[in-house]
Each structure stands twice: as C-alpha cells, then as structure tokens.
Amino acid sequence: MADKTVFAQLFQLVSRHAFNQCVDRYHGNHGVRSFSCWDQYLAMVFAQLTGRDGLRDIEACLHSHRDKLYRMGFRGKVSRSTLADANRSRSFLIYQDFGLHLIDRARHLYREEPLALDLKQAVFALDSTTIDLCLSLFPWAHFRKTKAGIKAHTLLDLRGPIPSFVALTPAKTHDVLALDWMPLEPGSILTMDRAYNDFERLYRIHRLPAFFVIRAKKNLACRRVKTYRPSDKEAGVRSDQLIRLTGLKSANLYPERLRRISFVDLKRNKRLVFLTNHFNLPATVVAEIYRQRWQIELFFKWIKQHLKIKSFYGTSANAVKTQIWIAISAYLLIAIIKKELAITEISLHTFLHILEVNLFEQRPIKQIVMDALQQKPETPYSNQLNLFDF
C-alpha cells in the first residue's frame, strides 16, 4: 500500500463487487460515458472527509491534485455540473444498499467488542434525529409552517457503536412508526425513550420474542399485581413491581404482565420510571441499559459535527438522501479501517482528523497514525519572548 494514497487505501478493504451489484440493481451506470457511480461515490466521500462547502469547492480541491486523482481511484473527470446531475438523477437507493452492506461488514468486525454491561444478549438503542432544511429550497420536505426537515430513524448496536439499520423519512413521520420497519434480533434487548410507547407494537416485540426497556409515560394507567423485588434506595431503586395495564385500549393491546421499575438517578436527583418485559435482570441493570441509550445521541452528535449533513450540495429529495447515505458510509468506512488496522490508541474522532489532513499522502495509514502519536512538541527557542512568562 506504500504507493497508494491514503484516500485509495480507505477503499482497499471495501468490496467493489458489492458496490457494482448495488449499481446494477438500479441501473446506475445506464447511459453513462465517463463519470460512473463509483466516481460519484469517491467524490462525495472525499467531500465528507474534508468538509467541502459546495460542488464548486469539491471541484476546485480535486482539480488542485489532478495528478493524483488516478491513484485515488477516479477514472472520470470531476466537474460540479456532472456531479450535480449525478446526485439529482442517480437513485439514492444505490448508496442506501451499499451503506447497508457496510453496516453488515462493520457489525461483523465489532461483534466481539465489549459491552458496557455484563450481558450476553445484544443490546440496541432506537431513536431518530431531525435534519433541518430550508422550506423555500426543500418544499418537498415540508415539516411545519415555516420549516422543512428529514428524519433519520436509527437502530444502533451498542457494541461499537455501529448503526444496525437506518431509515430516512419526512420529518413529520412519527417516531413510533419505526418499530414497524426495524429488523430486531430474537432474544435481543431494545431500549427506547417514551416517544415509542405504543403497546400494540411493544407486544409485537414481546412475541418475537425480544425484550424492551422503555420509559413510562406519566399518565400510565395500571394496577400493581405484586412487588417483584424489594427496593434498594442506596442503589436508586425506589420500587420494582409487576403490573397489569388497566386502560381500556392498552389492556387489550398488551394483555400480559409488565415490570415497572421506579429509579432515581442519584447524580442528577431525577426520578425515572421504566417498563420492561425482562423479568430476570436486576433493576439496576435495567436502569443502566436505559442509560446506555445515550450512545445513540452521541452517534447523532458525531455525525452532525464531523460530516456534512447540515448543508447540502443539491436540493432534490434524491440528492439529499444520497448525501446522507454517503455520510453514513463515510462513518462506516472510517470505523471499518480503524478496526481492520487494529488502531486502538486513538478515538474515531482523532482518527478522522488525521486522515483528512493526509488524504493525498502515499504512506501506509497505520504508519501515519503512529508518526502522529510519536510527535513531541518542539522546545521553544530560548530567545523567544513568552507573553505569559511572568
């Protein structure tokens, strides 16, 4: 890999055959003469990794390294008009399917990662994030009276953390509908916020069978069957009960017993009430499972801070969804190569920053990372005045 650029090395461990299958499935290269779907994908990943502001910026930056483009994998000429046409007309499903392929690859690599909890079962967090759009530029994504937006419903495997499934919908789509699409593993544990309180869908999870940990709504209608386990106020457990729902509709939708745990977060002095169909775990572990749900919030924050999904290179629905899926692909590519190269000394955030300033270097990625870690600050010149040397 010594003669390949860092950018080209990122794609060495990616199956080009799998990408071509996605392209052929949707006839992505039909009638294309020079700028293929692979060229489009490379240009958009480059824009994600380097934070380009627009199509003109992408074109200028790549053309400034024209002599290295072939070694980076480009075979067609990159121009802003061609890239704009590709983003508008080539189906985003190509990049969605390839993103799902990378998800499978990343989850396989991270399957042995330790979980913060001492559990043998897989644990997932489900949530969504809304990406705000300008209503005048994106009228197809109408959300509220003066706003537009698109929502990314995400199922996150808490080992990694790696997204297990992502679905893009208009922002006005209710979160709870995601439970109809998300593929759940039998025997796994799913943790969610109270926006997903829908007893018909929760009962469907129960019958899969799988487990859930969810916050209860304040107006929950129920009756206590018995105290399941004694409280432990020092650990924050105020009560641990078996209940039955008493609401006319909810009792029919979820006819079996549930476990209701009242827990106080001692650090924040905040009371939380959880519902779960898992009867074997200690109440403190149930509370910790819900606390781990914040990993999905950190994932959303990472994606929004470090990748380009706040400003878009096109205004059509297809262009926006293409950019979001390629942003997710960029995250997965970084996670995959970090794991494949066994780079454990730095965070994903630091790894991304090292890559983005060395994309055109022709040295092995691991060597670049090691060199960056071994650098020591230079001793300041003794005659240099120091403003803070009092």
Task: Classify the secondary structure makeup into a structural class.
Answer: alpha+beta
Helix content: 25-40%
* Total DSSP E strands: 10
**What about the largest sheet?**
10 strands, mixed
Order of helices and strands: HHHHHHHEEEEEHEEEHEEHHHHH
How much strand?
15-25%
Compute the CA-based radius of gyration: 25 Å
Mean pLDDT: 90
Distance between the termini: 50 Å
Uncertain segments of ≥5 residues (pLDDT<50)? 384-390
- Number of H/I helices: 14
Shape, per Cα inertia axes: globular
Structure description:
With 390 residues, the chain is of the alpha+beta class. Among the domains are: 6-95 and 313-373, no CATH class; 194-292, no CATH class. It contains 14 helices and 10 strands. The chain has helices spanning 6-10, 16-25, 37-50, 55-63, 69-72, 80-89, 93-109, 199-206, 248-253, 283-291, 294-306, 317-340, 348-356, 365-374; strands at residues 123-133, 142-144, 147-157, 162-170, 189-192, 211-215, 222-227, 237-245, 258-265, 270-276. Strands 1, 2, 3, 4, 5, 6, 7, 8, 9 and 10 form a 10-stranded mixed beta sheet that branches. The chain starts with 5 loop residues before the first helix and ends in a 16-residue tail after the last helix. Residues 384-390 have low confidence and may be disordered.
Please render the helix and strand layout as text.
Elements: H1 6-10, H2 16-25, H3 37-50, H4 55-63, H5 69-72, H6 80-89, H7 93-109, E1 123-133, E2 142-144, E3 147-157, E4 162-170, E5 189-192, H8 199-206, E6 211-215, E7 222-227, E8 237-245, H9 248-253, E9 258-265, E10 270-276, H10 283-291, H11 294-306, H12 317-340, H13 348-356, H14 365-374
